[in-house]
């Protein structure tokens, strides 16, 4: 096997990305401290053609060199907004017809492999702070909590790793809306 070079990958441009169909998904980052985590979520959202990212609270916003370091320009392709709190973002998204799903370990959560994304609905996935997770008021306001099962001694994942896992699963179920 030979690795492909960048030109052989036929990637779309940022302008083409803006015009392209997206999976019906918004990502909400609730007080994510690390700019590198924010950049990583941008890059993953770009890879899976996510509609947009809502940056909330203390979450850093572009332009920022540490976000760019891991986003590699995805902060320019993926649409984003800022809200003072994740609860405000969730309320706004719900008003736009999104189903709100917090990625959190909670009573009554649904394991990721058991959650079914309906391609006829729009989803907002809330990911939380590196230490405290998704705020309780946001969990209380969520339609669902989705839990990534873990079988080791730790009971948490890095927020950008959790985002990648959940976005991949969502993409697998929603990619038909891209029409490709």
Task: Please tell me about this protein's structure.
By secondary structure, this protein is an alpha/beta fold. The protein has one domain (19-174): SPOUT methyltransferase, trefoil knot domain (Alpha/beta knot). Helix content is 34%, strand content 21%. The protein is built from 7 helices and 7 strands. It has helices spanning 14-19, 35-47, 65-71, 74-77, 86-95, 136-141, 159-174; strands spanning 23-30, 50-56, 79-83, 98-103, 110-111, 122-127, 144-147. A 7-stranded parallel beta sheet has the order 3-2-1-6-4-7-5, sandwiched between helices. Helix 2 packs parallel to helix 3 and helix 2 runs parallel beside helix 7 (159-174). The mean pLDDT is 97.
Write the layout of secondary structure elements.
Layout: H1 14-19, E1 23-30, H2 35-47, E2 50-56, H3 65-71, H4 74-77, E3 79-83, H5 86-95, E4 98-103, E5 110-111, E6 122-127, H6 136-141, E7 144-147, H7 159-174
Parallel strand pairs: 1-2, 1-6, 2-3, 4-6, 4-7, 5-7
pLDDT < 50 stretches: none
Give the SSE string: HEHEHHEHEEEHEH
Total helical segments: 7
Number of strands: 7
Based on helices, strands and strand pairing, what is the structural class? alpha/beta
Mean pLDDT over all positions? 97
Q: What kind of sheet is the major sheet? A: 7 strands, parallel
- Percent range for helical residues? 25-40%
Query: CATH superfamily assignment?
Result: SPOUT methyltransferase, trefoil knot domain
**What's the arrangement of strands in the largest beta sheet?**
3-2-1-6-4-7-5
Highest-level CATH class: Alpha Beta
Distance between the termini: 26 Å
- Going by CATH, the architecture would be 3-Layer(aba) Sandwich
Kindly estimate the percentage of residues that lie in beta strands according to DSSP. 15-25%
